[in-house]
Amino acid sequence: MNNLEKTLVIIKPDAIERNLVGKIISKYEDKNLKIKELKILKASNELLEKHYAEHKGKSFYNELLNYMKSDLCIVMILEGSNAIESVRNINGATDPLKALTGSIRGDYAFSKTKNLVHASDSIESAKREISIWF
Ligand code: CMP
């Protein structure tokens, strides 16, 4: 039950636009994840290029960066027991059609690009992403 981990979460512009921030943060808090850092910002191209480096060249890359820099994002470090897997389960699959009901994307997302949230997918990614944003 232990495995104390930190993970990076981005609440994306569509979540802010749709007034879903409170509901999203509640889901993490309900699972006993603690907010260690939080900021709201309009991400620069440079920051997003670093964050999404592994997706460079993919068909959705330009659309993704244009969308992510179009408006404010909330970026957080969450900490808790098995935080990385826990947050990814709460978020649900990237494809909203595959995301389980009860997850953030399963309940609220209807686009692969505008999919409300991002979270680190491994301990290494969490370290890398936290150092990019904080
Ligand atoms: P995220 O968790 O931020 O990590 C990469 C992002 O790329 C993903 O969420 C989606 O927003 C986006 N993405 C991944 N796959 C696709 C796809 N097939 N089409 C469009 N966007 C995608």
Description:
- It is a single chain.
- With 134 residues, this protein is of the alpha+beta class.
- The chain has one domain (4-133): 2-Layer Sandwich (Alpha-Beta Plaits), CATH 3.30.70.
- It has helices at residues 13-17, 21-30, 45-51, 61-68, 83-91, 104-108, 123-133; strands spanning 4-11, 34-41, 73-81, 117-119.
- Strands 2-3-1-4 form a 4-stranded antiparallel sheet, with helices on both faces.
- The protein is globular and about 40 Å long.
The parts where pLDDT drops under 50 for at least 5 residues are: none
Tell me the count of domains: 1
Q: In CATH terms, what is the fold-level topology?
A: Alpha-Beta Plaits
Helix percentage: 40-55%
CATH class: Alpha Beta
What is the β-strand count? 4
Main-sheet strand order equals 2-3-1-4
The set of bound ligands, ions and cofactors reads: adenosine-3',5'-cyclic-monophosphate
CATH superfamily: Nucleoside diphosphate kinase-like domain
Roughly what fraction of the amino acids lie in strands? 15-25%
Looking at the overall shape, the CATH architecture is: 2-Layer Sandwich
Alpha carbon gyration radius: 14 Å
* Structure class: alpha+beta
Mean pLDDT: 97
Number of helices: 7
